Structure formats: structure tokens, C-alpha cells
Input
Amino acid sequence: MRTVADLQKGEKATIEELAFDEIPLALMEMGCIPGKQVVLIQSAPMKDPLYISVNGSHFAIRKETAERIILAKLLCDEI
Amino acid sequence: MRSKKTVNVALVGNPNTGKTSLFNQLTGLTQKVGNYPGITVDKKQGTCKLGAEQTAIITDLPGTYSINPTSLDESIVLETLLDNDHENYPDIVVVVAEVENIKRNLLLFTQVKDLKIPTLLVVNMADQMDRKGISIDIEALKTILNTEIVLISARKREGIEALKEALLRYKAFDTTPLQSISDKIDKAYFEKIKSRLKGFSTYKSWLLITQKNPVNFISEASRTIIESFKKEEQQVKKYQHKETIYRYQYINEILKKTYFIDRSKAKDLRSNLDRILTHKVFGYVIFTAILLIMFQSVFNWASVPMDLIDVSFSNLSEWFKKELPQGVLSNLVTDGIIPGIGGIVIFIPQIAILFLFVSILEETGYMSRVVFLMDNIMRRYGMSGKSVIPLISGTACAIPAIMATRNIVGWKDRLITILVTPFTTCSARLPVYAIIIALIIPDNRILGLFSLQGLVLMALYILGFASALISAFLLNKFLKVDGRTFFIVEMPNYKLPSLKNIAFDVFEKTKAFVLGAGKIILAISIVLWFLASNGGKDFKNASQIVAEEAVSQNLTPQELESEIAAYKLEKSYIGKMGKIIEPVIAPLGYDWKIGVALISSFAAREVFVGALSTIYSVGSDDEGTIKQRMAAEINPITKEKRFNFPAGMSLLVFYAFAMQCMGTLAIVKRETKSWKWPMLQLVGMGALAYFTAFITFIILK
Output
């Protein structure tokens, strides 16, 4: 099971699920929603935080959050 | 419906959409920053003429990504929009969106629109559309969103008139909610809410139910019902998530039909810059370089205006001395009030220049990259990447820096940042450092390149940052405060800074210093003046006593006057206070005179230099003269120089750590709403200062 934390720089993938005990609403409101494509733009040292782009938004999240964003297995070209 | 000449307009929008640019364009110099009652959120308001007769009161609400607040600032948005009786309840809401992030911006738009308030959509940075290959079918979007849309370029002042015209028509706006999301989520559930909470729209009731903090403008009965719904916490959360998903689905559908990007035309400045600026190595190198340039410029540029201010105020003082009839009033003005005000004004150049840099870094979008780069490091010390901004600002003045902690979301992160910010070397410490360094460090160069004095000053800066980090680390370990934080930081597009925005920002922050520290510095200067110019019997008879003693010494009249002033100070109330604390500070290598300077600088550090000049009766603020007198001062017991290396180092360390700023304490009290934290700073930093100064003195002696 891959998560956003496993992405390589520049790699694209589709979000399958947000596997939090309690999904942060702010994360969804930023555009991070299952079915959407995510791109890893840049990672800080130790891969934390991660600078990603989802659904037209660009933002940084910590590794602990990225590890909860599960990716779909297949690559997806849909935007 | 009330009929009135003024229209209440609220500006709502995501951060970085240019909402503030638009506010500045609409209101210009009429804007004022106040406070919302009871909380420390800045309230920005201004007026704007809409037409011949209509005036609008424009309120710039804090930037937010959603109507659901994650911070105190953001909760103001919700409260203003929900409370019909709120004095700023808008007649019309302007949602500011930006061409590139329109999808996310529309989330907030649909939320506001569902509140049944007349809502207008402004799409900013329309001038960038061509360059980014974006085209929007505005007419279609207008129809679907059932709203007026105005394209603007706030920085270029394009579209502002069209916006004003549209605002004039606010009464004709259709306030039907966009879609019945409630039906999609769980029709029965929302019917139940609707039937139980009368007088509120379904969406408004829903918002009241989803908020963690109870709002105070609703009746007791409604509140009880809301609380009963709140109990099913899991369900409420689930529905909130569903709501967001549905809203995005809806927005995606709309944009598919109305919003087009030709990627071949898009020139991607963002990714090119980010490749370097957020790079694992270059990112940090560039950030360090920017910091160095920043501090260097602050020193270089500020010295000229500072000297000018210094000279002007002493001239002013002299002039008043000549012009005013001699007496208590004249003394109060020339020795209390004018030096007091001068002591505030002299810091304005440094503070303004530093905030100019901070403001440019924020405006361009670079600061978000710094937050990204520094988060990992800052987190180890119990703070967040966002703490970097207050810590840098703290090198100007801790007061606006502490106010800048408001956008740190987690309470624990924020509290720790507030508590450690005063360790950073603020402008007020510099004059103290400068004079002591000049006294105890030889003016040599190392390797013929680096000035030794400069290196010591740099070491003190590093000491400031290091002690902030170490104390944050300890506070993080021992502080039992909950506040799990969720970190999310938008990386906005790079922008050229707008002069107008920067000017307003620098002005506001400098004002925070002048009003926050200034009032207190002025008040304390007057109290100090009183304590220094009054005393017991010996004080009153000073001239006689000194004159009698001096008969044999053959003094010039000027020397005699200095001797009298020094004697007066010794016998004044403040001199007595210095003597009282002498036993306490003797272990640090200080005598009663330094004690007087310490007491004087309790309210504000920089008063130290002025106090010393009085104590050593030089009669002028000329640094060279004070320095000579201080250097000549002999410890009567050891027969050594008073300001020798150990005592000087001990003083430097003391000033690096001690919390000698009433203005900061007052602001910490305001921001934390408790005396507990400023007291912890005062006592904790004071104890640390005393202890380390003691150790320094013992080791070096």
C-alpha cells in the first residue's frame, strides 16, 4: 500500500483514501479528496515536510499526514 | 429592511488571493486597524465612495480557505457572517478569488453563497490569464453560480470601478442557495435540524452544529438544541466531509464547462523557482544569504536616520531648556518627556527596515517556502515552520513579532513561540551591547579581516537564537498544554511585491511597536525622571555639600556642576534604590551605579545607556565621553577597573537573557489572555540572566 510519503519527486498518483482516525477537514478543503491526482513537487530533508499539488492547490504537509493519504495502485492521467 | 446611506461590505477570500490589495485599493488611507471586542484579531476597516451618494464601509475579514475556522482569525469570518445583529453584518459579501486557484476559492464562495447573503464574486489577477493560458467563460459562470462576477487586477487598479458599480446593486442580488447539498447527504437528518431550529436557515443551523466553540449570539433554547445535535460527533464529522466532497464535485462540474487552461501557453515560473528555492541544499544556502543581507542592510541603512534622530532630539531638548522658564516643568520636558520620546523614535528606522524585508519576503510568497524549509528543524524544538517569521521579526522588536504568531495554528506551538521570541536580539539590546563591547573588547581585527567587536556582536545574535531554541526545546518537554496540531501550508504563486501593500504592512507593524512599547517607555521615562530628580535632605542640599567638599579641589565651574549632578543622583530616590540592590548584584560584578542603570532599563533595555550617562555625570549623550568615564571607573575594593572584562561580559550575558521590556510583557498578557505566561517569562528569564551572569563573572574573574 503506497502513500503520498512514498512518492518520488515529480511522480503523479491518484488518491484512493484518507486513512485518518479523524480526517482533518482543512486537508479536504485544500482539495485533497479521494479520486484526485497528487504530484510530489519537492521534499524537505528527511522527506518531511512534503510539498505537493492536488486538485489545483499547492501546499506542504508533514510526513505523518502524507503517510495517511493512501494512493490508488494504477497510475492515472485524469486531472 | 433598513434603508441607509452606508453599505456594509465584507471582503472574504483565501489567503494570497490579493484580497488585501483590493482592500487597499478600495479604502486607501481611510483604513484603520482596530480590534474585535474581547479577542486579539485585527479588524481592518475603511470607507469607500461607491457613487455620488453611497458610501461603503469595507471590512477586510481575515483570509481563510473555508468558512469552517481552524484558527482564531478565521473564526471571525464565520461569526461576522452568521450573526445578523453584528454591527458589521454585511449587506453584501465580496468573495475574492484568483484566476489560478479558482477551484479552491470557489469552495469558500459556495459556502458563503449558501448563507443567503448577497454575494459577489471577484476574480483577481485577471491580467495574468493570457500569460497562464487561462480562459474563463464568465457569462456562463455567472448564470450557473447565480451571481455577479467582476474581473479585476487589484494591483493595476483594473476593474475597481466596475466592482463599485456592481456593489451599488446589492439589493437586487439573488440570495437563493446554490444547491441543496443537505438533500444529497442525508435528507431526513437535515429535515430534522430544520424542524427543530426555527428561524435559522438549514445551512446556518448546520454551521452552528459543526463548530467546536459555542457562539454567543444565539438564544439559550437554540443553543441547547444545537448541543444535542453536536453529541453525535462522528456523524457530524462524516457529514462535514461529505459536504466538502460534494461541493468540490459541484465545482469541478461547473469548471469543466467554464474554465479552460491551455498548458502549452503557460509559462511556469513557480516550478522553476521552486526547484532552486526549496532545494534541499540551495534552499538553505539562499535563505541564509537572504538573512545575512537583511541584517547587514538593517545596520547599514539605519545608522544615518538614527544619528539624525539622536541629534535632533538632543537639540530639541537644548532648545526647550533655553526657551522654557527654569523649573520643574522645564525639567520634566527636557529631561523626562523629550528623551523619552527620542528613545522610542530612534528605533523606528531599524524596525521599519527589518519589517520592510519581512514584508517583501511575505508578499513575494517566499516566506511560505521558508516555512516549508524550516518546519522539520523547528519541530524538534517544539515549534512549527511558521515560528520562523516571529523569530526573525523578533530581531526588530518582540511586540509585532509576538503579534505575528497569530497564524500559528496549534496553541502549544504558538505559546512556545511567544515565550521564546523575546530571547532574540531586538533593536533595544543593540545600544547596550554596543557600548559594553566598545569598553571591553579591543578594536582588533582577526586575520586582518573580521573586526573582533563585530564578531562578539554576532556571537550575541547567535546566543539569542540559540537560547530561544534551547528554551523552546525545554518548554516542549515540560509544558503540559494540549493542542495537537495539523500542519498545512499553502505554497502560493510567486508574485512581485506591491508597494502599497508593503507600505501599509510596515506602517502597521511599526505602529505596533510605537504604541505597544512607546507608551510604556514614555511613562517609565517620566517616572524615572521623577525618581532621579527628587530625593531626601542630602539631595536638596547637594550643591552646598559638594561645593564645600570641592573647595580644596580647584574645580572648574563645569566640573563642579558635574560633581553636583553625580552627587544628586547618588542621593536621589533612584540612587537609593541602586544602593539597596547593590548586595544582590555585587556577585555579578556590578555596583550601585550599574544597579541604577539596571532598574532604569527594566521597562526598556535601551534606557541603560541614557541612565549611565546621567550616572557618570557626563552631561551629554555623546558615546565617546560616556565610554571614557566608564572606562575610568575604578572598583574601590579591588582597585581594578569597574568595567573590566569579567564584569562587562557578565553584563552582556545579563542583557541577552533578562526580560526587561514591559511592552513585551503587556503584549504577551494580551495574546495569551493570562498573567501566568508573562510572569513565567519575567521570572524565568530573570533567573536565567542572573545565574548565567554570575557564572560568567566567576569564571572570568
Remarks:
- Chain B has 31 helices and twelve strands.
